[in-house]
Amino acid sequence: MAILASCPISPAPVAKALPITAVRLRERMDEIKITQEDLAEHVGATQGAISMILSGATRQSRLLPKIAYHLGVNLNWLVGTSDDKIDMFDSDGEEISEDDLAAIMAGTSFKRLMKPEQITAGKVNEQSGGRKPSSGDITAAVEHLDLVPVDEISLEFGMGSTVLHDDHETIRRYVPRDWIAHFTRSPAALLRFARGRGDSMYPTILDGDLILIDMGETRMTRQDEIWAVGYGDLGGLKRLRSIGGGQIKVMSDNPQVTDEVFDMEEIRIIGRVCGNLRKI
Questions:
Q1: 3-state secondary structure of 244
Q2: Residue 135 reports pLDDT greater than 60
Q3: Higher pLDDT residue, 90 or 280?
């Protein structure tokens, strides 16, 4: 994220005439001193595309998630569904993602915000006429950003496996539709996120990696692919190989973890691992 000197873009003179996204984009750009040209370069767009958002001519841009990331601010604030303006850095000064922020706010992350006081639950959005954002406001924002819901299951893969429960906790996340298309053609309703835990699949999957699972694929049509599987009361991320005789070899990428062989009926395929989101 570049923070460069430029002429300030004051939101004050146009605050009443512009949509909230344009007002807040101007505010953040002015705050960190970044030009339209520099922002356009960082998000892979033209200066004209940024100008259209700033002028209010474009209200439904798919660039907004990237813009929020490169400006180091939370997307919900930028699009007006929250008044909590959060600098996207943890207590160590490292950039955090929207997923990190959701986990922090849910109390399921070991990370802490650099400025935890920026989260002020229940704060009223002045730009929305003094009312809190409604479910309709949030739905509208999701639609105009073309986001789709994908649930993250709290399935822990400690040393590659864990106890499976039908009542496991879920966290709903919203991700760009065109981003999902890079990994799978399955609809979002058949996708799940899960966190890698342990080192049984090291170095392919690291502890804490966010894994995308396609539950539309439950038949082992590909040898040596990584699958989310259940066997007995345990679940895990493993490579599977059919070895004939109605048996499957369950393999770990970590050479220190011993492979196992199960009968076909002992294995429950939850879905194929189609993506691995790792913070670099």
A1: strand
A2: no
A3: 90
**What does the alpha-carbon distance between residue 196 and residue 214 come to, in Å, rounded to a whole number?**
15
Please name the CATH architecture into which domain 12-84+120-144 falls: Orthogonal Bundle (1.10)
What are the Cα distances from residue 276, in Å, to 114, 149, 205, 252?
27, 18, 7, 16
Three-class SS state of 258? coil
CA 241 from chain centre, in angstroms, equals 30
- Using CA atoms, how far apart are residues 136 and 124, in angstroms rounded to an integer? 16
Question: In sequence order, what are the residues at sequence separation of 6 or more whose Cβ sits closer than 8 angstroms to the Cβ of residue 116?
Answer: none
pTM over 0.70: no
Residue 131 pairs with which residues in a beta bridge?
A: 125
Fold adopted by 147-277: Umud Fragment, subunit A (2.10.109)
User: What are the strands, taking DSSP E only, across the chain?
Assistant: 147-153, 161-163, 170-176, 191-195, 210-214, 226-231, 234-244, 247-251, 260-263, 267-277
Buried b (16+ CB within 10 A) or exposed e, 230-263: bbeeebbbbbbbeeeeeebbbbbbbeebeeeebe
Cβ-based neighbours of 31, under 8 Å, separated by 6 or more: none
